[in-house]
Each structure stands twice: as C-alpha cells, then as structure tokens.
Design a protein that fits this description.
The chain has one domain. The protein has helices at 2-22, 45-73. Helix 1 runs antiparallel to helix 2 (45-73). It contains two helices and no strands. The protein is an all-alpha fold. It starts with a helix and ends with a helix.
Length: 74
C-alpha cells in the first residue's frame, strides 16, 4: 500500500508542477507557448480556461496534501 501511494505521490507532484507552470504570470510564462494566456486577443475564452486551470491546480494540490498526510500516517 505504501509503495502504491508513493507512486501516486510522484505522479501528483509532476502533475502539480506542470499545472503551476501553465499559469500565466506577469510575463505570460509557459502558458503562452500553449496558447492559454493569450491576453485580450482571444474572444472571451481565455478567462474560462484560466479559471478551469486554477480549479484543476487547486484540486491537484488538495489531493497531493491529503496523500502526503496519509503517507505520514502509514
């Protein structure tokens, strides 16, 4: 069980790093390469994509935290 949860933890860590890097910052970061943080050039779709990206990041972070606590309890 510990090994399985450790593998899940590594996968969550990689996913969380990827999701955080996709967020557009001051300089539009890595998200500009994938067309997510296009600024005002898209027709209203950018804000919805950013909102969904934020939600996915928060969910992944919560699962990562819960998995960390469970790994400490085992």
């Amino acid at each position: 069980m510990y090994t399985f949860m450790s593998v899940i933890q590594v996968g969550l860590a990689v996913a969380l790093i990827f999701l955080v890097l996709l967020h557009s910052g001051k300089d539009a970061g890595l998200s500009g390469a994938f067309g997510i943080g296009g600024g005002g050039s898209s027709v209203g779709g950018g804000s919805m994509v950013e909102r969904n990206l934020t939600r996915a990041t928060v969910v992944c972070a919560i699962i990562f935290t819960l998995n960390t606590i469970l790994l400490l309890k085992i």
